[in-house]
Amino acid sequence: MHTPAPTSHEQRRWPREEYTTVEALPSAPSDEPLVEIPVSVVADLQDSLLVAMNDLKRLEGLLDHATANLLDRFNAALQSAEQMPEGALKAELQSSLHASVTELQFHDMSSQLLVHIGKMLKGCAYILADQALEPDENEAGMVVTHMPRNPNPVTQSEMDAGSIELF
Amino acid sequence: MHSILAVDDSASMRKMVSFTLASAGFKVVEAVDGVDAFEKAEKQPFDLVLTDQNMPRLDGIGLTRKLREHPHFKQTPILILTTESSDQMKQAGRAAGATGWLVKPFDPARLIEVIRKVIV
């Protein structure tokens, strides 16, 4: 998704159709402390979040490209190994290629992580806008919830094989 | 030759799963999400379904639920292969009728071992 760079504080608000959910504004707790932040600081924070989101998109593109090439080379190596004469070297090569299947799953896990992080950053940017900037006429009295509803689906921090549970 | 329906919205994962299963002598049919998988399952029976959980249109648990309502898939082993590892999700998979829950990344040898154990 390409998000154009904003040119003013008002334009930093994302288009309404990108909002995830809209709920009635709850009454704020009276004892909740408030923090005042200059609008320019909010705007700078939003800019930084936009930059981070765009960087994540580029990273995703790099991963997609690298993975596609890597899988092509993986297939080529498999075919070459297949044509080798039977022997210890062929067996060792094929064994190594099979073993690399676990690590080659990094792309799927990384992509899911990137998507989730992107949603979190976008949610932060929306919340900043909702809290600090004047609402549009049709947004008055509404609060928008932007954070992903589900927790991060990827909890692994290593590429060790995952658990297996049969019911 | 046993046939397996491999479902994942990630092209790289489909490639890894297909390569692993085909190397072990299984016939593999790929599907890109739960809807695509169910359409393929309606056209032909499979000996096992190996599905991702988080997918657009229809997720793995939703697919499992739909397949269990289909007369041809009441007893077919359905394994969910996913990054999700929470007990809550596993229980939801179990309640939907899944045979097992495998957390990514998978080890090829262990995946084949489990499939041979549960396949009819």
Could you list the spans of chain B in which at least 5 consecutive residues all have pLDDT below 50?
A: none
CATH architecture of chain B: 3-Layer(aba) Sandwich
Give the C-alpha Rg of chain B: 13 Å
Secondary structural class of chain A:
mainly alpha
The biggest beta sheet of chain A reads: 2 strands, antiparallel
The end-to-end span of chain B amounts to 12 Å
Please count the beta strands of chain A (DSSP E, at least 2 residues each): 3
- First-residue to last-residue Cα separation of chain A: 40 Å
Mean pLDDT of chain A: 76
Beta-strand content estimate of chain A: 5-15%
Protein name (chain B): Response regulatory domain-containing protein
Keywords (chain B): Phosphoprotein
Pfam family, one (chain B): Response_reg
GO biological process, one term (chain B): phosphorelay signal transduction system
What does the model show?
The complex is a heterodimer of chains A (167) and B (120). Chain A is mostly helical. Chain A is 53% helix and 7% strand. Chain A contains three helices and three strands; from the N terminus they run βαααββ. Chain A has a two-stranded antiparallel sheet. In chain A, 13% of the residues are buried. The model of chain A is unreliable at 1-27 (pLDDT under 50). The N and C termini of chain B lie close together (12 Å). Chain B has helices at residues 11-23, 34-43, 60-69, 87-96, 108-118, and strands at residues 3-7, 27-31, 48-51, 78-82, 100-103. In chain B, helix 2 (34-43) packs parallel to helix 3. The radius of gyration of chain B is 13 Å and the shape is globular. Chain B contains five helices and five strands. Chain B has a five-stranded parallel β-sheet, with helices on both faces. Helices cover 45% and strands 19% of the residues of chain B. Chain B has a single domain, classed as Rossmann fold (3-Layer(aba) Sandwich), CATH 3.40.50.2300. Chain B is of the alpha/beta class and 120 residues long. The chains are: A mainly alpha (167), B alpha/beta (120). At the A-B interface, helix 1, helix 2, helix 3 and strand 3 of A face helix 1, helix 4, strand 5 and helix 5 of B.
